[in-house]
Amino acid sequence: HVVLKVDDDGSDSGVGGRASGVVLKCDDEERTWSEGCAPTVIDTTFRHETWNRGSGACYVLLIDFWHPSLSLPEREALKSFMELEGEYIRREMQRKGVNQAA
After folding, report:
1. d(CA 82, CA 79)
2. How far is 71 from 79, CA to CA, in rounded Å?
3. What is the pTM (predicted TM-score) of this model?
4. Long-range CB contact pairs, 41-48, < 8 A, 24+
5. What is the tens place of the pLDDT at every residue in 47-93?
6. For the stretch 30-50, what's the b/e string if a residue is b when 16 or more beta carbons lie within 10 angstroms of its beta carbon?
7. E strands within 1-102?
């Protein structure tokens, strides 16, 4: 994950009264992100989530790497699953009327 740009008004009043900012939580460890911070590599087999407590948009470059111990058939199966998951998410966003980037 690489934070490319954070459009925020600079206020400290984020969602739920918490400080604003872009946050990554992985395996109960939270880190706040900002523009120009070092790239973050996480093992996504752990529970993980991100959120933006600020009032503006946040743009993050996400790059996936295959775990080196995965075999070719395992990678192919995961690719098929991720394609199906992506199609489901696209359809749900369309159903809910959410704008999607081109």
Report:
1. 5
2. 12
3. 0.58
4. 41/1, 42/1, 48/24
5. 999 888 888 888 888 888 888 999 999 999 999 999 999 999 999 98
6. eeebeeeeeeeeeeeeeeeeb
7. 2-6, 22-26, 29-33, 48-52, 58-61
